[in-house]
Amino acid sequence: MIERISRLGRRGCDLLEAVGRAGLFLAQSMFGRPTMGGISLWIAQVYMVGVLSLAIILVSGLFIGMVLALQGYTILVDFGAADALGQMVSLALLRELAPVVAALLFAGRAGSALTAEIGLMKATEQLTSMEMIGVDPLRRIVAPRLWAGFVSLPLLTIGFSVVGIYGGYLVGVEWLGVFEGSYWGNMQASVGFFNDIGNGIVKSLMFALVVTWIAVFQGYDLIPTSEGISRATTRTVVYSSLAVLGLDFVLTAVMFGGLS
Amino acid sequence: MTASSLVEVENLHFTRGDRDIFRGVDLSIPRGKITAIMGPSGTGKTTLLKLIGGQLAPSAGRVLIDGHDVHRLSRKDLFQMRRRMGMLFQSGALFSDLSVFENVAFPLRVHTDLPESMVRDVVLMKLEAVGLRGARDLMPSELSGGMTRRVALARAVALDPELILYDEPFVGQDPISMGVLVQLIRRLNQALGLTSVVVSHDIKETLSIADYVYVVADGRVMAHGTPASLDVEQDPRVSQFVHGEPDGPVPFHYPANDFYDDILGQEEA
What we know:
By secondary structure, chain A is an all-alpha fold. Chain A has nine helices and no strands.
């Protein structure tokens, strides 16, 4: 019994320690002085995590918008409210689906790659040798990746929404015959710039920070063996998906739940 | 501390998990010489290098480099100090996303403001010294093990450090590249006036280049002296190691319970 309690305590301490390490890690890499060639390193990473994720994000956005329109139409048409389709598609995408789904896809596409890349650098002593050359890998390797993720995901989310709304238009207007004017008109009338678009982007900024943070930290902190890398990559996807969904509930409650 | 020693290790203790790796190690590494640290695998020789380089902190004792306690330096001063050291890793640890040329240029680009033409000259000089000027455009994945280590050596000396730490430079090399490396280490040491620390368990090669040798085992310095004096060392543990005998005071077997009990005791249990 005592042993069980002590084990629980030890686990709690381990967890707290890991959180503390992760926090210090974030602070040191995000707010440290950038290194030489900081901008070009950052641009290279924006390409790696952002531009290369564009295809999966945009294709998913298109399909999600199309499915939304199809599902929404069949329900709305029963109430004779098919005119509200544009409003439904755009609000669902801007407030919820685009930030969340883009973040989940981003965790799978870019987060896991970041973890594996940094993990392999650690396993092959590249990080240690960089330290011995007198360059802080937190600034040189981690910081550009963190900032790249932080900037890329919100942009990807905007792209996701735009393509999704267009997908909804294709299905709703072109295929199912909703009146084009009411699709766009209702959307324009009901979507608030700060309330809907702004909050969606704020959400997406939070998700970007959390997902990239988890990904680079898991890579930096892993046990440098092949098993360690595989576990850390898995943990990146699992933790960041859970974190995104949990955080989304909290943010939604604050933004749209009338708590504020 | 004598004026002629660059690195001074005093009463170093280090614990990892429940295991004591070092229990009071004292070393003094003379300036301008090649000092070898030898010992069986698993005695923490690489750990010792990491302690000297300030990547790990000891649980007691201190490491002085040129009179500065490495583990009391601020992060900034530590990185400053590391510019004066080069380290050759066992795996080479080249940056896999940079070409050979860029790998060697990396320390120069980070720490100096040399114009591009000067960087190019320095890099080509360093690569020429290790015989790989022609390989400058290759990527690390296209190099053989011996070439990787030579490029890593060129990178380690790119900033002309005062101290260079070699972690197992001879492991896994064929006889030719082994000979090349031995010669390179000696030549670099003489030509550049470096202080070298070689961690290794390849006795013949190491003894052939070292000026002074420390034998580390069981968390302590077991013997030290010039290569000639170690050859006739009386301590049975040292002579077992130096002459490469498979069994002796350093046991061949990893600690286990009695073999007989282990095999036959199973059925009774």
